[in-house]
Automatic annotation (TrEMBL), chain B:
It comes from the Bacteria. One of its GO terms (biological process) is DNA synthesis involved in DNA repair. Residues 5-76 form the Endonuclease GajA/Old nuclease/RecF-like AAA domain. GO terms for molecular function: ATP hydrolysis activity. InterPro entries: AAA_GajA/Old/RecF-like, P-loop_NTPase. Transmembrane segments: none annotated. It comes from Hymenobacter fodinae. This is Endonuclease GajA/Old nuclease/RecF-like AAA domain-containing protein.
Length: 77, 795
């Protein structure tokens, strides 16, 4: 079956379509920045996501907020 | 569609004991014939053709894969032939070829050219029909997995969950650390809080405490800690000095005693005896071997060493007592010297230690020592000389200091405890602050991870469910085509989220939802249900590349449902590259033979070992009638018969569509006269409206009115009604009356029947329009080009 043509309904294209939806939703929910979209897309499509990858990605936007929170905590304490 | 199969060539493949080529006509008179119907009674070789398509398209041994057949490859070759001689090759409309041969257990596929585009072949056999319906949820998932599997997202989701769990554990640890730090600090606060210190909470208090400058305390503790140690050291050296003093006295007494004893002995001996013993002892050692001198070292006279040494030893024996006393004195002197030296060292050490202590206490005097009112600078001067008097004073001073040593130690311990509490408060406050920060951060991270996880899970569920719902919608649409108006269908396909690779199936029956189809559906309903699910999945799976092959799939459906299935396939065939139907059912074959304008009919004649497969081109009835009308050797009986059958079929369909009344004739069908009579009222107003087509058979623009033509049907009916007797008198029975009809009459009857069938049938799908539209009936073609039959009804 080496001559089989590309199938538009392959799992890969379904996965890619879903990954695109998820990346858009993650951006809309303010979980990631636009510049991190390719990284999120890679996590969702390449089956190479490993422990810590998502945390690293989602902590990116969190870091400045946390610093501010820390300062506030210290101040009130 | 250049991938449509146009030819299948078989050599020694299964029933093809002789090389055979089966040709599939891709179009007929400008009309695409992408439905191929292969009709043959049982044992004529239908499965051979289907298996050949399966082996070329899917490298599958097709119908040979069944229980009881261990090595299907053994049975691919025709009887009396070997596997090496087997070949099955298909050719597409574009001229591309693909060939299957056998090599051991393996099917070897070779293509005419490497970049040839070939269709994908999907085969459905009767035994596979219920596979999807009756399969376990896991097996059903496998079948549909191709459309709903999102392994990349699944993998990412799993990694996301791993991160959630890891952060959750970290948060638990951080919270425990914080709680422990808070509890410890609270305890410290309650124990150590002093009046005037902050009272808000333990952390505020701790931070106040931690801000305290403790460097002076630390310095003071460092000096204070030397006090007890110094006193201890001093006391130790005093003890040593006292021991050395005692020893000194003892050794002095011993020396005195030894000297006295020697003096007493010397009073009885000559004054020189002591010296003599000494001299003789030296001379004896001098004369001892190995030197043994031969002359005296004093007078230089010759001597005999042996004799002289012997004489000296005799003299010494006589002087032995004096010699022993002298030896004791010598030993006592040595011990006395050692004791004296030790006492001197102790005296010196005491001075060094008391000087050092004095200097230290001058600057950092503990409170307990201060109460002794010692003038340390003065003491330093007074106790500067190392001797027994000084040591006696130091010993007295040491005694006083030892008495206050415990107090000094207590002072030191108090200070140390204070510093330890300070450090503890500081450590716990830092731990509380750090763990609180960590908890805050981890909570925020966990919150984001959980929300992201929920987002991914929901998106994945919605995505998959949307696909499943689309499949359900398609299945139900197909199912309603076959079973219109029946309250039966597929209700829901849904993933089992706990098991994931599992797909549950729920059907509707009457008004009840969520039923198990196998429990409620009839055999026929299950067959068509399985078929619709298979077809719906095929439609999702790149249908323009697919050739569907149905191998004698339907055996349990009645004539009415056969028609609907045929109509459905005719309508759905446009979605696919090609549909190949193999059937032994004559009802189905006849249905296509009567109304299959877009169908290529093949008939398989009786198979024999010697001749193998015998495919023959078959024609639809109208085409056969047209050929009979044009034949040089005019067969009037054949024309009358074929025209009659065609006409009766057309009128029977119209009578059914328009619910015309027919006289009931028990055990007999209706005659042509009956059918013409009952449809007469319909034909008074009946007309067909159809799109004009170009020379290639393509429809012209449908939005332009001039591209549509109308055909009134009244005159067709009138003409046929006038000569209807030809059907029986020439085409059916031996009847002398038939001789009254000329060949021209018969030709006219045949032509009129053909014209009516041609006028009514859609040029694309070959069917008489029957589907109810707004004001007319339409065929199953694309809505823009549908052939329209008026009126809608007779009421």
């Amino acid at each position: 079956m080496s001559q089989a043509t590309t199938n538009p309904s392959t799992p890969q294209t379904a996965n890619a379509a879903l990954a695109t939806q998820i990346v858009t939703a993650l951006q809309e929910a303010n979980f990631i920045e636009g510049c991190d979209a390719p990284l999120a897309s890679a996590l969702l499509t390449t089956e190479t996501a490993k422990a810590g990858d998502w945390r690293q990605l989602l902590e990116k936007k969190l870091a400045p907020t946390t610093t501010t929170d820390h300062a506030a905590t210290h101040h009130t304490a | 569609m250049p991938q449509r199969i146009t030819q299948l060539r078989l050599t020694n493949f299964r029933g093809a004991t002789q090389p055979v080529t089966i040709k599939f006509t891709p179009e007929k008179g400008g009309v695409k014939t992408n439905v191929v119907v292969i009709f043959g009674e049982n044992g004529t070789g239908k499965s051979t053709i289907v298996d050949a398509l399966d082996v070329i398209g899917n490298t599958s041994f097709g119908s040979l894969i069944r229980p009881g057949i261990q090595a299907p490859q053994k049975y691919v070759a025709s009887l009396t032939r070997d596997a090496q001689s087997v070949e099955a090759e298909l050719t597409t409309q574009a001229g591309n070829t693909r060939k299957a041969t056998l090599s051991g257990k393996t099917v070897v596929i070779s293509s005419g050219s490497a970049d040839a585009v070939m269709p994908e072949i999907r085969v459905l056999r009767r035994r596979d029909l219920l596979q999807l319906i009756e399969a376990t949820p896991a097996k059903r998932y496998e079948a549909i997995q191709k459309f709903i599997a999102v392994s990349g997202v699944d993998s990412a989701e799993a990694a996301l969950r791993v991160d959630c769990n890891a952060v959750e554990r970290q948060l638990g640890t951080a919270e425990a650390t914080r709680a422990q730090a808070a509890e410890s600090l609270q305890t410290l606060w309650e124990q150590e809080r002093q009046p005037g210190e902050p009272v808000q909470n333990a952390l505020t208090w701790a931070k106040h405490r931690a801000s305290e400058n403790v460097s002076e305390l630390q310095s003071r503790l460092g000096f204070l800690a030397k006090g007890p140690a110094g006193i201890q050291q001093l006391a130790g050296i005093v003890a040593q000095w006292q021991q050395s003093q005692a020893k000194f006295t003892l050794e002095q007494d011993g020396l005195d005693t030894a000297n006295t004893a020697l003096q007493d002995q010397n009073q009885d001996a000559t004054a020189r005896s002591t010296e003599l013993i000494s001299l003789l002892s030296s001379a004896e050692r001098y004369l001892a071997p190995p030197v043994e001198p031969s002359s005296c070292p004093l007078c230089d006279n010759s001597v005999q060493a042996d004799a002289l040494r012997s004489r000296i030893q005799t003299q010494l024996a006589q002087l032995q007592t004096s010699r022993l006393l002298l030896q004791k004195v010598t030993e006592a002197q040595a011990r006395f010297k050692t004791a004296s030296d030790e006492k001197t060292r102790c005296n010196q050490e005491l001075v060094r230690v008391i000087q050092s202590m004095g200097a230290h206490f001058t600057k950092h005097e503990p409170a307990a020592v201060k109460e002794l009112h010692i003038d340390w600078p003065a003491q330093g001067i007074e106790l500067a000389m190392a001797n027994d008097d000084t040591s006696i004073k130091v010993a007295a001073l040491s005694e006083k200091l030892v008495a206050v040593k415990e107090a000094v130690q207590s002072e030191c311990d108090t200070l140390q405890t204070r510093l330890a509490v300070y450090n503890n408060i500081k450590t716990q406050a830092q731990a509380l602050t750090k763990s609180t920060d960590e908890v805050t951060h981890l909570q925020a991270v966990l919150d984001r991870l959980r929300k992201a996880c929920t987002l991914v899970v929901n998106k994945r569920r919605d995505f998959v469910q949307a696909i499943l719902d689309e499949i359900i919608g398609e299945v139900n649409a197909l199912y309603q085509f076959i079973h219109p108006g029946e309250k039966i269908g597929l209700h829901r396909l849904e993933m089992d989220d706990a098991k994931r690779a599992s797909l549950d199936q729920h059907a509707t029956f009457e008004d009840k939802e969520g039923v198990v189809p196998q429990a409620y559906f009839s055999e026929s309903h299950l067959d068509t249900f399985g078929f619709c699910l298979w077809l719906a999945l095929a439609k999702r799976d790149n249908p323009k590349q697919l050739v569907l092959v149905l191998d004698d799939v339907f055996t349990s459906v009645d004539a009415q449902h056969f028609r609907r299935i045929s109509d459905l396939l005719a309508a759905q065939a446009a979605n696919f590259q090609q549909v190949i139907i193999a059937t032994h059912n004559r009802l189905w074959h006849d249905y296509y033979k009567i109304s299959g304008a877009s169908v290529h009919l093949l008939k398989l004649e009786r198979w024999t070992l010697a001749r193998g497969l015998r495919p023959h081109e078959d024609q639809i009835l109208a085409t056969e009638l047209a050929a009979a009308l044009e034949a040089d050797n005019f067969d009037r009986q054949a024309v009358a018969s074929k025209a009659g059958v065609l006409l009766e079929n057309v009128l029977d369909n119209l009578a059914a569509y328009y619910e015309c009344s027919l006289k009931y004739r028990p055990g007999r069908g209706h005659t042509l006269g009956d059918l013409l009579r009952t449809t007469k009222r319909l034909f008074l107003t009946a007309k067909v409206r159809r799109i004009r087509r170009d020379t290639h058979g393509h429809p012209l623009a449908p939005h332009l009115e001039e591209n549509w033509m109308e055909i009134a049907l009244k005159q067709h009916h009138e003409k046929l009604d006038a000569i209807k007797l030809i059907r029986n008198e020439v085409g059916a029975h031996f009847n002398a009356l038939g001789n009254d009809w000329s060949d021209n009459d018969v030709r006219e009857f045949g032509q009129a029947a053909y014209d009516l069938a041609e006028a009514l049938a859609c040029q694309q799908c070959g069917h008489i329009p029957k589907n109810l539209r707004t004001d007319h009936r339409g065929c199953g073609c694309d809505a823009k080009y549908q052939t329209q039959l008026y009126p809608l009804s007779l009421n």
